Amino acid sequence: MSREITREELSAAGVQYGHQTKRWNPKMKSYIYGVKNKNHIIDLEKTITHLNTAQKLLETLGSKQQKILFVGTKRSGKNAVKEAALRSGNFYINNRWLGGTLTNLKTILIRIKALWEIEEEKKKVVYL
What we know:
alpha+beta, elongated, ribonucleoprotein, structural constituent of ribosome, Ribosomal_uS2_flav_dom_sf, Small ribosomal subunit protein uS2
């Protein structure tokens, strides 16, 4: 069912073009192939390896009917994220990402509950 993504496909899509060298994250050093015109060039071989790993994981989760959260907030990918999630019956976030959603869920849930309580109180208020 799955197929491996090729270097040519990634190259044609411009995946190899990274951030400007002055805006990089040092944690990404092992994934950078080189520099061209003051921009980092991403190592496509490592990209392919990790994409294939991710693809296998997603296939495993899908075969077990596990839910997947698709996230993509850049304009260029918003629609693709939404379509892929809906097509596969999963969840998506394609607008603003709320920091802490995954790493600080306890606090986020408290704030959501507070919001629900405020909304319920607003329903009870009678305006004259």
